[in-house]
């Protein structure tokens, strides 16, 4: 892998009535930084089914990244959450930012049922743990716009063999807990540092660690 090729990091605009989305703040904070000599390009995606994948693909085509990490805000996750799999289903619990609420639709009508992340998620999780950042492996990215974009990313990268990609959900920011009582949160600085560490470990790791990130049902 050519380590000087850029890294693409995406975040989402706020949704569901929130005024901020930590994924966008993290992506913007990393824009222009370098990791192991590779410049980071960030883009903010709309929280819409209609054009989020198209805009991500446009960013991939203009940046030519060696690695893509898409970020999204989660609810109910304690720390940073590395997604294992994107599924070919949309089942929106709320309307997206354009008012669309598709139910039981495929992301790609002729696509496979699922794609796995091609990032070394176990190694990334181990690195974050070693740095004291709360982290877990997630077996489901949900069925809303994050899973949609994750699926669209992996569908595109399935024929871009030089580019690895995956998805990380992040918890809320402390200022969001007034609107979301009881939700876990992390300070922005901790999440920015954590995403940086995770990307760096991914760049240094070709073969993922063989350690458990599994769960009981
Ligand atoms: N989180 C939502 C969509 C955008 C975001 O940041 C999700 O988990 O699907």
Top keywords for this entry?
217 residues, Aminopeptidase, 7-stranded mixed β-sheet, two-stranded antiparallel ribbon, binds pyroglutamic acid
Helix and strand layout, with pairings?
Elements: E1 7-12, H1 22-30, E2 34-35, E3 38-45, H2 52-63, E4 67-73, E5 80-83, E6 85-87, E7 90-91, E8 103-105, E9 114-116, H3 121-130, E10 135-138, H4 145-157, E11 164-170, H5 188-204
Helix pairs in contact: 1-5, 2-4, 3-5
The chain binds pyroglutamic acid.
Structure description:
A hairpin with a 2-residue loop joins strand 2 (34-35) and strand 3 (38-45). 28% of the residues lie in helices and 23% in strands. With 217 residues, the protein is of the alpha/beta class. It is globular. Helix 1 crosses helix 5 and helix 2 packs parallel to helix 4. The protein has helices at 22-30, 52-63, 121-130, 145-157, 188-204; strands at residues 7-12, 34-35, 38-45, 67-73, 80-83, 85-87, 90-91, 103-105, 114-116, 135-138, 164-170. It has a single domain (7-204), classed as Aminopeptidase, CATH 3.40.630.20. The structure holds pyroglutamic acid.
